[in-house]
Amino acid sequence: MTDKRWAFEDFEEGATIPLGRRAVEAAEIIEFAQEFDMQPMHLDEEAGKASILGGLSASGWHTSAMFMRLICDNLLLDSTSQGSPGIDYLKWKRPVLAGDTIRGQNTVLAKRRSASRPTLGFVTFKSELFNQRDELVLEFQNSGMFLLRNPGAAA
């Protein structure tokens, strides 16, 4: 990158961007579940152990929100991001349990300049979240919109 902020030109197809890591605590799993997803396996350790998840498990939506925080902190808040037109797919592959440490990465699959907005480009990412055993727990694919640093440059 030529300046501190990520702009469209800085993304290279095939490049993987590390997004940091985060510890997952039981109290935050329960707090999120009490507000947004009150299923027993997200509220109680014993109910979680009795479920197919094997322990107190973060809601998939909580896992997605924690991943979004990693993406914001380690990429988007230091970029020219203009948001996203949506997500192509999202898959929860394994439960995230209390005590896990998660880490994320984005891989650039493709990029293209906008045909209708000369200052904007689209970057397609495959986003992956892993636990401390390097097991894939969540993946999704989406495009992000980023401003160009130099819109007048040739494509």
TrEMBL record:
What's one Pfam family here? MaoC_dehydratas
Query: Which residues does the UniProt record annotate as the domain MaoC-like?
Result: 22-114
Please state what the protein is called. Answer: MaoC family dehydratase
Q: Which organism is it from?
A: Tianweitania sediminis
Instruction: Write the lineage as a comma-separated list.
Output: Bacteria, Pseudomonadati, Pseudomonadota, Alphaproteobacteria, Hyphomicrobiales
